[in-house]
């Protein structure tokens, strides 16, 4: 995490020309949770996810990217393929607001000032910051709220494909997994350390994941860029 932060700081502070091109738009899709409660499928959206996205194109091959996405993460043991989870039959829903920042790399040159359609696969990674509710399950399977929220950092791993649909609009589809640095999103581990040994469930040594699957539509603006040498 420390080296990734240093890498992002270097990119943000690199000398650049003032003429750049920007993108701003929306994200719409679905979310699913991967953890100790709920389905064991890796990509299975079960709740809507919406947000905004901004990109600062630093070259035809990479962009600085920010996004803010909100969703209700949901896990249902009844939808799991694991018979032990079905028998336990726990469920949860946790609203999260995620802010992400990082770098998007394209497989092919994506120069928006050249004539004709542009299309390319891309990768995105960086840092995520999410806010969520704290609760745990008592011995009867009832959720007990801890009357406070927590924050979690994570690492996004996004694969997508984008294409220009007009001179100013870009459409993309993507699947992005988030590895978080917490095991508390589903309530399987209480926030209070004094309660973990009593009410912790599942594998408390594995952190939670969640996935956003969806599409983005962005509008481009700005003068023709004089990209710097990287």
How would you describe this protein?
The protein is mainly beta and 230 residues long. It has a single domain (2-12, 22-221), classed as Porin. Helices cover 10% and strands 54% of the residues. It has three helices and eight strands; from the N terminus they run H-E-E-E-H-E-E-E-E-H-E. It has helices at 2-12, 83-88, 193-199, and strands at 21-34, 47-59, 62-76, 91-106, 119-137, 143-164, 169-180, 209-221. Strands 1-2-3-4-5-6-7-8 form an eight-stranded antiparallel beta barrel.
Tell me the β content. over 45%
Identify the overall geometry. Answer: elongated
- Using the coordinates shown, work out and report the CATH topology: Porin
Q: Whole-number average pLDDT?
A: 88
Q: Which sheet architecture does the biggest sheet show?
A: 8 strands, antiparallel, barrel
Specify the CATH architecture: Beta Barrel
Radius of gyration: 20 Å
Q: Runs with pLDDT <50, length 5+?
A: 6-19
Order of helices and strands: HEEEHEEEEHE
What number of domains? 1
Work out the helix count. Answer: 3
Q: Portion of residues in helices?
A: 10-25%
Rounded to the nearest angstrom, the distance between the terminal CA atoms is 23 Å
The counted number of beta strands is 8
Q: Output the structural class.
A: mainly beta
Entry keywords:
single chain, 230 residues, elongated, eight-stranded antiparallel beta barrel, mainly beta, 3 helices, Porin
How are the elements arranged and paired?
Layout: H1 2-12, E1 21-34, E2 47-59, E3 62-76, H2 83-88, E4 91-106, E5 119-137, E6 143-164, E7 169-180, H3 193-199, E8 209-221
Antiparallel strand pairs: 1-2, 1-8, 2-3, 3-4, 4-5, 5-6, 6-7, 7-8
């Amino acid at each position: 995490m420390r080296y990734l932060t240093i890498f992002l700081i270097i990119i943000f502070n690199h000398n650049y020309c003032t003429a750049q091109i920007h993108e701003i738009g929306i994200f719409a899709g679905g979310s699913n949770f991967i953890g100790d409660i709920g389905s064991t499928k890796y990509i299975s959206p079960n709740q809507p996810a919406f947000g905004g996205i901004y990109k600062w194109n630093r070259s035809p091959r990479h962009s600085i990217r920010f996004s803010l996405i909100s969703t209700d993460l949901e896990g249902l043991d009844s939808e799991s393929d694991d018979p032990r989870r079905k028998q336990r039959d726990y469920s949860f829903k946790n609203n999260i607001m995620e802010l992400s920042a990082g770098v998007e790399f394209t497989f092919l040159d994506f120069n928006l000032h050249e004539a004709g359609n542009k299309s390319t696969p891309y990768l995105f990674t960086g840092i995520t910051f999410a806010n969520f509710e704290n609760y745990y399950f008592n011995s009867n399977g009832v959720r007990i709220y801890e009357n406070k929220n927590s924050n979690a950092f994570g690492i996004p791993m996004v694969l997508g494909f984008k294409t220009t649909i007009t001179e100013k609009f870009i459409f993309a589809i993507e699947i992005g997994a988030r590895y978080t640095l917490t095991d508390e999103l589903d309530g399987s581990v209480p926030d209070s350390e004094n309660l973990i040994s009593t009410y912790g469930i599942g594998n408390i040594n594995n952190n939670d994941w969640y996935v956003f699957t969806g599409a983005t539509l962005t509008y481009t603006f700005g003068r023709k860029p004089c990209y710097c040498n990287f």
